[in-house]
Amino acid sequence: LKYYVVTGASRGIGREVVLKLANLGHHVFALARNTAALEQLQEASKNITSITVDLTKSQSIENAVAVISSKAEQLDGLLNNAGVLINKPFLELAENDWQQMLNGNILSAAQLIQKLHPLLKRGSHILNISSMGGFQGSQKFAGLSAYSASKGALAILTEALAEEFKDDQIKVNCLCLGAVQTEMLAEAFPDYHAPLTAVEMGHYVAESLCSLHHIMNGKILPIALTTP
Ligand SMILES: NC(=O)c1ccc[n+]([C@@H]2O[C@H](COP(=O)([O-])OP(=O)(O)OC[C@H]3O[C@@H](n4cnc5c(N)ncnc54)[C@H](OP(=O)(O)O)[C@@H]3O)[C@@H](O)[C@H]2O)c1
């Protein structure tokens, strides 16, 4: 039996990753803030343990890690998929907007990795979900400067940790996703329709979490149909 932790599990891509992993017979700890959505998700499979957590709060992360360690001795993988997006021109960004982006997209993932590290077994995989906006050399979008910068930080953290965790034999990779039709995308770009569904991307991400680390480490991969 393999154990995986997936953040941002209450909706969108994360929710589909959880369902796919559970279907494959793995045990999944599904993390997000929305308890009602998580409880509904947990009903889908006995392989799912939902945990309500606000990843921007250290104490909340510690509580979640305590629940995980009470149910699993070791973890096979961690998917840092939770994220937040503010679409606003750079000159209008308030300090609080920056704090939300940095806390929600990089600091939260870094803290969770630190606190789960003792549970991550040799041969395990940390997969970070960044964005095409956080991929060096890609086309950027006006209004997404803080979001893209915070996602770029997550991509570079990936390379840094792949190096630092070499002796632990923990592999770290990053997927920079293009547009996927989810609530995040619909809220930020109401008139745009993405070429991929959350189910399609969720399946790809689940398979990547289970197997990408067998063939690569410290890689930042662009995963997009449209974005150049
Ligand atoms: N959709 C796209 O086009 C696209 C493109 C590139 C990259 N991405 C990235 O892919 C990931 C998933 O995106 P999505 O489109 O599926 O987004 P989504 O539908 O908005 O889902 C985001 C998830 O993150 C969770 N989350 C946010 N803040 C949290 C916090 N403080 N603590 C715990 N959980 C938190 C949310 O759950 P709660 O609200 O219940 O906490 C939700 O489950 C994100 O990292 C996003 O940046 C998406």
Give a verbal description of the structure.
The chain is an alpha/beta fold and 228 residues long. It is 42% helix and 20% strand. It is built from seven helices and seven strands. It has helices at 12-23, 35-42, 58-71, 95-116, 145-164, 183-188, 198-211; strands at residues 3-7, 27-32, 48-52, 75-80, 120-131, 171-177, 220-223. It has a seven-stranded parallel beta sheet, with helices on both faces. Helix 1 crosses helix 7 (198-211), helix 3 (58-71) runs parallel beside helix 4 (95-116) and helix 4 packs parallel to helix 5 (145-164). The longest helix is centred in the middle third of the chain and has 22 residues, at 95-116. It is globular, with a radius of gyration of 16 Å. Bound molecules: NADP nicotinamide-adenine-dinucleotide phosphate. NADP nicotinamide-adenine-dinucleotide phosphate binds at residues 7-14, 32-34, 37, 53-56, 81-85, 104, 108, 129, 131, 177, 179-180, 182-185, 194, 198.
